[in-house]
From TrEMBL:
UniProtKB keywords: Ligase
Domain Acyl-protein synthetase LuxE: 76-376
Domain of life: Bacteria
Protein's name in the database: Long-chain-fatty-acid--CoA ligase
Lineage of the species this protein comes from: Bacteria, Bacillati, Actinomycetota, Actinomycetes, Kitasatosporales
GO MF terms held by the record: ligase activity
Matching InterPro entries: ANL_N_sf (IPR042099), LuxE (IPR007534)
Length: 385
């Protein structure tokens, strides 16, 4: 076992007899394997997942009986917003290994519960993708700048959990947080971020910048406004963004322009800057390839649904993002329609070596009072521009 990364270690499904295909699917080591064999295995795993939840969740059982045959992989649709209003488990509460929420300190939150298998298998998926990209470096320390919430007692936000977990893939020399815990909440510290970057630029350890893109952009803008010269962060530095620009749409910068500014001001090349997509309701990792496309890994399937009829849409059309994976055993969230708009493209429409379909995230659908982690974090930026 890799001593710095135990998340590649084997993990067993709760019931090996009932979930044999789920185990086999999640044990696949190539994150982007694709072909008839993988499709057949995925379908078998979805059948096992649906049977698992139908036996253990009265909610899912009734939904499955009413709509199963109409949906891909015979999986009824559940909207992510459902989990903001209901706690629906397919396990006993004493089997809950982790409880995470999707939003800030107020507003509606998705309450998601994970057993040991579910959270560890999701973590192993992330580890597989990091391993494939050469980002697991147990023998090389790195400095971390986390554009996320500094850990605090009772903090259960999924983004904070994820960013701290990503620090497992390389030993930390120093860790700095952009959203500092003040005792009564969290505050964005742009000057602390600038000081950390300046200090890291003088070190020989690579830097890993993780978290909300809006805060990194605000740091770059503040550096420019202060007349600070560009920095050259050490070779091997990596930027891994996630959470979107929710709450800061008026400040959002196009991806190409944003990445160019990171390269200009921090010296990190474009191929070492990656965006991600994920949610507490669907913990499958979607991480950009070197061409900045969000390819679906082997453990999930992606569909786009009409905003009017919820019917599947063809490649290139914009609709609701529908994410499917049989990995989850704790909550019937194996087929989730997100409150996000996206468009799907075939794998061969990307110039990278990956063959799985990829999607472009087009932002949140409509206007809602529901607050994601990024929305809650964005409110900390008010008055700082």
């Amino acid at each position: 076992m890799n001593p710095i990364n135990p998340h590649l270690a084997p993990v067993a499904v709760p019931d090996p007899a009932a979930l044999a295909a789920v185990q086999q699917l999640c044990d696949l080591t190539d994150p982007y394997a694709t072909g008839p064999a993988e499709d057949e295995l995925f379908a078998a795993a979805m059948a096992e997942s649906n049977a698992w939840h139908a036996e253990r969740s009265p909610f899912f059982r009734s939904l499955y009986a009413a709509t199963a045959a109409e949906q891909p992989f015979h999986a009824p649709l559940v909207h992510a917003n459902f989990f903001k209003r209901h706690e629906v488990l397919s396990i006993d509460r004493d089997a809950v290994d982790l409880h995470l929420t999707s939003s800030g300190t107020t507003g509606q939150k998705s309450q998601m519960f994970f057993d040991n298998w579910t959270i560890r298998s999701a973590q192993r998926m992330v580890a597989r993708i990091f391993e494939r990209n050469g980002w697991i470096t147990p023998d090389q320390q790195v400095n971390y700048l986390l554009y996320s919430y500094q850990p605090a007692p009772d903090l259960k936000l999924g983004t904070s959990f994820t960013d701290n977990y990503l620090c497992d893939f390389a030993p930390a020399r120093q860790v700095e947080y952009a959203l500092r815990h003040t005792g009564g909440g969290h505050e964005f510290d742009p000057f602390g971020c600038i000081a950390a970057l300046q200090r890291f630029a003088q070190d020989d350890a690579p830097v890993r910048i993780l978290g909300f893109p809006a805060f990194l952009w605000f740091t770059l803008e503040r550096m420019r406004a202060m007349g600070l010269p560009p920095l050259q962060l050490p070779e091997g530095s990596l930027v891994m963004l996630g959470g979107g620009w929710k709450g800061n749409a008026d400040r959002q910068i196009g991806k190409d322009a944003f990445y160019a500014r990171v390269t200009e001001q921090l010296g990190i090349p474009s191929e070492r800057i990656r965006d991600t997509f994920g949610s507490v309701e669907h913990c499958i990792p979607y991480i950009e390839c070197e061409q900045h496309r969000l390819h679906a890994p082997v453990w999930s399937r992606v569909f786009i649904r009409s905003t009017r009829t919820l019917e599947p849409l063809p490649y290139g059309e914009v609709g609701y993002l529908h994410l499917v994976s049989p990995y989850i055993t704790s909550v019937p969230a194996q087929s989730v329609v997100m409150g996000d708009l996206a468009e799907l493209h075939p794998g061969d429409a990307c110039a990278c070596e990956l063959d799985t379909p990829w999607f472009i995230h087009r932002g949140r659908a409509g206007v809602s009072r529901n607050r994601s982690c990024a929305v809650a974090a964005a409110e900390l930026m008010k008055g700082l521009s």
